[in-house]
């Protein structure tokens, strides 16, 4: 595996120690994708604010492996920064499950208010005992189901479909509770698996549906918008511990300052991806989310196993305005 070999190079230190303070960051998405460009902005701020003492190399497009594998490498310092979805963190830290629950956020504004405030800080801080410093949240839009068979209008339409999910128990339970078969697999295997009929569909936001070219094979996109789970930008605690306190402050601030830029790029990209997909003739349908939310009530409760999780959920629900 190229990813593992490349990561081995980093671990041996022959690449990342080439220049003083040259740090590495990885992303499963390609150059140009808003998460990658958000991290690039972070790197620029880092360089400017340390007069070039700290600099960043970004390995985009999953060059160093999938999110699960690279996260593991990040925890022991072989990679310095990682931009991931909440899904691969679900098995590492229970508090991350809370923001990944289907239908927990009533709107993007609600999600942003939650992750930009004390609840978001608590989730980010919960990663530290696992060897990761949570720096900030980025947007990830709304995830909906797409497939090769036909439009999904009700949970009944999902019965028996083989749907790819990221490797997270929460996602597996979510898809099962809707009557479909959950097939956990890394993102970079989805296109091929759709094309070969190994799976019937998957779920993701407009930009990932478009960027991974999944829409070329899965011609039905049904707007369930079941998840508004944000992306997370994390740092290896090994690297963090090796920085003087003033550099840690710069890192934290630069990450947070990259968020508005990322969100601007995100909103534009959602529109562009939507246009590309629609122009290709994909059949897109609106969905009444109520029966989907209803079918997921049981898995919601089953996913919350600690009081700390339940308290956060109550606080998130209390921040709903009912405006959406
Ligand atoms: C994307 C997300 C990735 C990855 C991917 C997936 O929306 O940006 O980090 O989690 O979904 O489904 O694997």
TrEMBL record:
<dbReference type="GO" id="GO:0030246">
    <property type="term" value="F:carbohydrate binding"/>
</dbReference>
<protein>
    <submittedName>
        <fullName>TRAP transporter substrate-binding protein</fullName>
    </submittedName>
</protein>
<keyword id="KW-0732">Signal</keyword>
<dbReference type="GO" id="GO:0030288">
    <property type="term" value="C:outer membrane-bounded periplasmic space"/>
</dbReference>
<dbReference type="InterPro" id="IPR018389">
    <property type="entry name" value="DctP_fam"/>
</dbReference>
<dbReference type="InterPro" id="IPR038404">
    <property type="entry name" value="TRAP_DctP_sf"/>
</dbReference>
<dbReference type="Pfam" id="PF03480">
    <property type="entry name" value="DctP"/>
</dbReference>
<dbReference type="GO" id="GO:0055085">
    <property type="term" value="P:transmembrane transport"/>
</dbReference>
<dbReference type="InterPro" id="IPR004682">
    <property type="entry name" value="TRAP_DctP"/>
</dbReference>
């Amino acid at each position: 595996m190229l990813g593992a070999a490349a990561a081995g190079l980093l671990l041996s230190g022959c690449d990342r120690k080439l220049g003083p303070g040259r740090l590495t960051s990885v992303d499963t998405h390609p150059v140009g994708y808003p998460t990658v460009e958000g991290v690039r902005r972070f790197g620029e701020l880092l360089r400017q604010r340390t007069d070039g003492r700290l600099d960043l190399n970004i390995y985009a497009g999953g060059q160093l492996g999938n999110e699960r594998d690279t996260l593991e490498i990040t925890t022991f310092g072989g990679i310095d920064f990682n931009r991931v979805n909440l899904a691969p963190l679900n098995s590492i830290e229970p508090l991350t499950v809370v923001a990944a629950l289907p239908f927990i956020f009533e709107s993007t504004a609600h999600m942003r208010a939650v992750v930009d405030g004390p609840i978001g800080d608590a989730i980010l801080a919960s990663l530290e005992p696992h060897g990761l410093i949570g720096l900030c949240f980025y947007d990830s839009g709304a995830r909906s189901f797409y497939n090769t068979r036909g439009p999904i209008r009700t949970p009944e339409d999902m019965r028996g479909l083989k749907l790819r999910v990221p490797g997270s128990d929460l996602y597996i339970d979510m898809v099962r509770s809707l009557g479909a078969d959950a097939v956990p697999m890394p993102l970079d295997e989805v296109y091929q698996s759709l094309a070969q009929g190994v799976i019937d569909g998957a779920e993701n936001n407009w930009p990932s549906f478009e960027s991974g070219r999944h829409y070329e094979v899965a011609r039905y996109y049904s707007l369930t918008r079941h998840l508004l789970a944000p992306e997370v930008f994390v740092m290896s605690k090994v690297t963090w511990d090796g920085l003087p306190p003033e550099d840690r402050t710069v890192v934290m601030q630069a990450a947070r300052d990259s968020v508005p830029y990322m969100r601007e790029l995100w909103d534009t990209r959602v529109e562009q991806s939507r246009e590309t997909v629609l122009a290709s003739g994909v059949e897109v349908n609106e969905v009444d989310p109520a029966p989907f939310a209803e079918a997921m009530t049981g898995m919601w409760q089953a996913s919350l196993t600690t009081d700390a999780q339940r308290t956060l959920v109550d606080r998130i629900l209390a921040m709903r305005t009912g405006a959406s």
